[in-house]
Amino acid sequence: MTHPDPFSDLISALNGEIDSTETAGVRIDTARRSRTGAPEVIYGRGKSAEQIAAAIQRLLPKESRALAARIEPGRAAEVEQLLAGLNLELAYDPIGRTLTASRCDSVSASTGGRVGIITAGSSDRPQASEAAAVLREMGCETLAMHDVGVAGLHRLVQPLRQILAFDPDAVIVAAGMDGILPGVVSGLVSLPIVALPTSTGYGFGGDGIGAMTTMMQACAPGIAVVNIDNGIGAGIMAGLIANRAASQRSL
Amino acid sequence: MTHPDPFSDLISALNGEIDSTETAGVRIDTARRSRTGAPEVIYGRGKSAEQIAAAIQRLLPKESRALAARIEPGRAAEVEQLLAGLNLELAYDPIGRTLTASRCDSVSASTGGRVGIITAGSSDRPQASEAAAVLREMGCETLAMHDVGVAGLHRLVQPLRQILAFDPDAVIVAAGMDGILPGVVSGLVSLPIVALPTSTGYGFGGDGIGAMTTMMQACAPGIAVVNIDNGIGAGIMAGLIANRAASQRSL
Amino acid sequence: MTHPDPFSDLISALNGEIDSTETAGVRIDTARRSRTGAPEVIYGRGKSAEQIAAAIQRLLPKESRALAARIEPGRAAEVEQLLAGLNLELAYDPIGRTLTASRCDSVSASTGGRVGIITAGSSDRPQASEAAAVLREMGCETLAMHDVGVAGLHRLVQPLRQILAFDPDAVIVAAGMDGILPGVVSGLVSLPIVALPTSTGYGFGGDGIGAMTTMMQACAPGIAVVNIDNGIGAGIMAGLIANRAASQRSL
Amino acid sequence: MTHPDPFSDLISALNGEIDSTETAGVRIDTARRSRTGAPEVIYGRGKSAEQIAAAIQRLLPKESRALAARIEPGRAAEVEQLLAGLNLELAYDPIGRTLTASRCDSVSASTGGRVGIITAGSSDRPQASEAAAVLREMGCETLAMHDVGVAGLHRLVQPLRQILAFDPDAVIVAAGMDGILPGVVSGLVSLPIVALPTSTGYGFGGDGIGAMTTMMQACAPGIAVVNIDNGIGAGIMAGLIANRAASQRSL
Amino acid sequence: MTHPDPFSDLISALNGEIDSTETAGVRIDTARRSRTGAPEVIYGRGKSAEQIAAAIQRLLPKESRALAARIEPGRAAEVEQLLAGLNLELAYDPIGRTLTASRCDSVSASTGGRVGIITAGSSDRPQASEAAAVLREMGCETLAMHDVGVAGLHRLVQPLRQILAFDPDAVIVAAGMDGILPGVVSGLVSLPIVALPTSTGYGFGGDGIGAMTTMMQACAPGIAVVNIDNGIGAGIMAGLIANRAASQRSL
Amino acid sequence: MTHPDPFSDLISALNGEIDSTETAGVRIDTARRSRTGAPEVIYGRGKSAEQIAAAIQRLLPKESRALAARIEPGRAAEVEQLLAGLNLELAYDPIGRTLTASRCDSVSASTGGRVGIITAGSSDRPQASEAAAVLREMGCETLAMHDVGVAGLHRLVQPLRQILAFDPDAVIVAAGMDGILPGVVSGLVSLPIVALPTSTGYGFGGDGIGAMTTMMQACAPGIAVVNIDNGIGAGIMAGLIANRAASQRSL
Amino acid sequence: MTHPDPFSDLISALNGEIDSTETAGVRIDTARRSRTGAPEVIYGRGKSAEQIAAAIQRLLPKESRALAARIEPGRAAEVEQLLAGLNLELAYDPIGRTLTASRCDSVSASTGGRVGIITAGSSDRPQASEAAAVLREMGCETLAMHDVGVAGLHRLVQPLRQILAFDPDAVIVAAGMDGILPGVVSGLVSLPIVALPTSTGYGFGGDGIGAMTTMMQACAPGIAVVNIDNGIGAGIMAGLIANRAASQRSL
Amino acid sequence: MTHPDPFSDLISALNGEIDSTETAGVRIDTARRSRTGAPEVIYGRGKSAEQIAAAIQRLLPKESRALAARIEPGRAAEVEQLLAGLNLELAYDPIGRTLTASRCDSVSASTGGRVGIITAGSSDRPQASEAAAVLREMGCETLAMHDVGVAGLHRLVQPLRQILAFDPDAVIVAAGMDGILPGVVSGLVSLPIVALPTSTGYGFGGDGIGAMTTMMQACAPGIAVVNIDNGIGAGIMAGLIANRAASQRSL
Asked: Chain F interface, mutation test: which of C9, C11, C27, most F Cβ atoms within 10 Å?
């Protein structure tokens, strides 16, 4: 497998061949997908509907698809209105709060990568859905099992067996209060685990700090951690692992 | 690829078929490598030479090789003396402070997995060496580039091109003060990055907290983080990614 | 260049020659601009429209211009109403939330100082606008480039070249999640960088703490940091640097 | 069961009937055992051998036994020398760093209370030994199982079954990096769990903070937590639970 | 007293004999009460009325009673409407924000366990009520004394004497600003104290952190601490202690 | 000067002579003023109007006056309605959010104590007003100077001279961002300074933490600190100092 | 009582009448005692014996006495040697680690101020001794009671009665683990309490943080807090209170 | 003034024209001075004498001078021995712990930039010396005033007047406990202030955290802050400001 020069976009920019001027105060990295294997994700928090719509429009000529995250339902409706009549397909996921826009002829090409997703509690689903959305954009297939806490170890049996039967290349484990779940799973399987702490929980160690700390201290070491509530980050990390493995399958 | 039942060791234990009694106060998980793909690593801090030697001896009948981490030079010499005459090959790495013991006929079987390692500063080498040691035990090949800070971006060019020419399945990036290095690398390549913060640095955000925080907040999202100075954890995470990819190559 | 005695206002006060009694609970430092080179800025948070209007009126006999910061749109409208009919020119910036009041014949005298402003993301604009407002009051010219993150290094090329073509005396770099941006810029130019962390970001290191920590730990050392969201502070620091340089040009 | 008035010692003191003057700067609570069911424990850190010996001598006329904690080996030898010739039996535990002194005819009366002790790692033994020492002084029987981490769940099977066969009234679970162990145990049994975080571990959440946070956030709620390394506190809490249960058995 | 195998549910699950599939995204541990002696508590925060109602319905075939916590009044009304016509008895406590559902023929069987509850201030009552609710479900009798701060020590006399006259097996002490109250009580009685810090208080150490810290550092060692505002956890810990003692009474 | 026995209330309670039963969940310390020299202050946050009114009514038979703090305007109106027709004089201070209730014939007896109050900014006035309210109840005279920051040292001259001309027994200095003000004042006068940090300020060290830290670290050592926003605490501390001094004047 | 102008030293300096040049890198405030009522205290940590000796020599012409704090025994001996032959009286207190130097004819003039000192544990004595040393220099009389923890409330009776019999103007209460002690004392007496947290204690809230937090949150509000281990600060605060009261006695 | 392309080194590296291979594990940025105006500083902590000597030798062919920081005296002697006979001039500053190496014919070219340095206490001198060393390497002239705390404001008069008479382009203010000093100075002059917090101080806010927090919160806004103890960073920031101003003088 031959990698492109990692600096090719930079060289193009140094030669003045990449246009990266602002649109509505936003400077989109239209080359990110080809360079890093992950789509440019529009981070919606604190952006107006106009900014989000402009960013989507800026991305679409280069890419056939765009993903925006942290979009509240009302904001999504505004964006959809702004983009109406442009022959785009828009899909909003109210759980994960992601908005996908694609040119109508576009499909996200499947890579064959596979990622399992496990959540400790039902309140960890939004972050898991965010991860699943970006994984779909990266061409990966996902299988999710929810509400698999360790307070009753036996509840782990059936979901974990199902996950393994799916033969994933990586597993995302999202947890807010039950921060040990990634460590327990890691101690049972020989797959890389991406731990996703969520801001569930209250009191000392609340807001995800406790979960993140537990994951960092876990004795079972086949895990690495992304920031609290960073479903996008967990999805991209797992997607890169899965797509690397899938690329080797197709050799 | 068919996975074994993740609960097979547990079932054996429930049936009384696994012996996990203590030896010198230590209860070794002799089945870890077959179950999780990673070796049981003996954590040396706070253990006496006798405890370390006993743990090595406990592991070796089941496994042909054993790895101990966080072993200071003096302690390593004591352990070596205790194990003398047992026909074991012992190798101590004074930079990474790891001690490898193997039955003389043993070699660590190569899996074909490949992991690149980049350090931001020369003081991040011990953690990188610790990661390399466990990667060797997992059968992976490694290529390391040191002292690649972002204070001068141009210093990144040659090492990163060399790393890509090696075609790794994953890249470990270790940094203490230059915590952004994993994010910069992640923004240039399409490979999973395991970020390893190190306890270099002083003042506010010193002892690795600043590096870890930077890595957690990084905008380039193809990275996941292990605990500060946890070279073993970074190595195992990268090793699992690489071995998964390598297993697909050999299909 | 001869400096006035730094204690001259203090001596005047000790001699009873400075009147600093309260007006509506506010004790304005009417001599600040002449003493420190920076205007007295009215900090609007937690102040009523009456207090803000009174403070502006207290300042204007001595100064021809007044600046109030952290003024929400509704509050600004109330203040404008209170000051109507006083022959003042009022300008409100809804992005930076600053309100400028000036006697109608007043212009902010240009000093010839030049400050470049770079933001990492579009959500860092309010703080940058606040800095620009106070720089205008200090007589400096500014040039701003927005949304220049390091997740794609190539996006930095064009904006940074434009900033340098402007030949600034200092550069403000505002960033919330991409806290390393000031360090990267500092590693490329020979100008003082004022780093302005912003309260963008979430999870561990969110609310600007991560950005500030990264800036404090940065390996490229030509930067100094102001408090999170303190656009006024960044502006005044950069303005003092620029005005010092400009004063030397005109010698 | 009739309790004595909880304020009887206070009433005695208010009537001037309790002598609590200082001896060598130490004011011993000679009535603590009868009032609270737990012995007065002499906290050795920062006390000279003379202070410790004086405290022991002050306690022994009222009590037949005395317990001192956090006594380094050298200090213990000094105390033993100071108390030589006083017809006392002295026992020092170098793991738990406790020193027990008793009048030669004294035995610690058995209450019939039973407490199980589980440690996650071999480095958690000192704290467990400290707890065991105070439990012996409270007349409880203990059974300890060591190095029972959850990285390999199967290692929990045999020790937990042995603990339950002992039919304890309470279980102490000590853990430094594997902070979830108390929660896992609590999810499997119907007994009160006293969680004892230990200062093992490094990096983010090191020095016991991570373990304590995990225990506080644990989803399995039948646990309560004592301070990091507070073996004495864990022992007394478990001892009070066990002695309450034992007192009901003998009714 | 013979304990059941702690792993029996796990063995059933490994044999495929326990059904733990999701209902409305929730995977209920229907066997928790028999295994751990404490009811499965539905944690209401962040769950929709539909999820809460489904969880209750899922539990009731196996259990005759269900308890949901952290249910705001409006949410409780919604749940009640969803469950109307199912022949269930529903009881909502607006102070503790708990909702109890039971089949109409069900009563919570009394175990004879007794738990005293003391609150430092009137604002600590919600957490105490939450604890009392779960204690009722565990079959324990409770006696509560409120607003017993130590700022006036004499206010402690009457309530503590009343608590002791009740002869409890354990005492819960809830406090937000007066974090020492558990320690003072522990120094006066020979009973295990479960300390429950509450999020009362402001400024440095506010939101319960100060109370929790004080409880952790308390010199009187017969106490153990649950997380801030975790009334459920305090209740279950005290309930397990009381039910253990009660089980010995009935031998 | 002869002090009463500090334990007299406790002895009365132990003899059953003090009635401290609950009223509407509140257990008032009716003897606090005579014992400690400070009034019992009803802390309003989280209390209903009914609870506050009941507490006032409980206090008034014993005391002729009552003070409630942290009462929002709407709550104050409710309380006033509940107490209408009881022949009480009610005074609400909307800045300090305190409510004073007194029997109509009552006046707060003057002690002759004098306390100076200095605030750094106009947003620190609420806390200063709270302190002034409790000082009035303690019979002290106060003189307040507002908005005396150190950004312009000369602004300190006139107010501090006025404060000294008042000849106070103690000085309260309240500051949120200008946390050094107590230290600067302490370095200029020979009077005890009570430092009152306020929750003004934002970013790193915001919410009063920065002010409190600065006060704790101040090099000029004649100051002691109360909790953030604790105007009541600052007032009582200063009132006790002033009343002690005043009591010596009248000897 | 007429106060001198607080700015008189400043005016002298502005007129060039105060000499404050460096000696051996130290710039002594020779006028502090007359201005603030407290001696200039030489902070020994990190200073060489030469610097300390030079500072003492610089102070003595103006003042007849000098106090140095945080002087380790070895350093004290070095200083004593450097000052030998200068006809000074030197007194070193090995518990409080203070060194007093005085011209041989000097006595510290008694003011008649009285300060009580209470320590919670014997390990809090060094800080209490430091406070006592500076109180002696301020002319106050002190009475100290040690090891008065609240784990046994009855131990408080005798010492507190003795303190009150001494009729102090203020009370210092030093505590490390038993941080509530100042609050309990404050709830029993009508005197200002200066709370001095000490760095005793371990684990969560160790190093004095827990004690300081408890003191900040204390419900009994007649207390104010100095920094951890700041015996000098506690002493000066209490000394200023006592000397103010004493000055009123002598009117 | 025309700036070079900030990306010229990067372009050279991309074209393979810059050699940045490792020497003894260190990859020196030989082009830093020309690109950023600041020398590459060798950070000595955690480097062996061999590594430091190799780095110096690597720098000297390109640069005529090299600066190493954080070099303990013993390490400096080792480095000097390793470099003996190479015709280099070596200068070690034991206060600032910096080591300068220069080719014998080299002088640091003066730029005409001027920087004032003020320290709050004598223990802040090491950091100030570190800053002065790097300023000398940048060609700036410095004037330092030490031990200028604000506990006695009058001590500030003479030093600040001397600093202004020097007519500096920027002022560094270093402080550990007296963190407000930069703010006070900033409120008196119209020059940019670089605030350098130092790790002096103890207790809450010790180790420089308090000073840094105070500086971040300072109301006088013409200051920016570098990390605790980062004398190099403060020096380079001030040097860039001064050299920018100086470059304008010489136009």
From this structure: C27
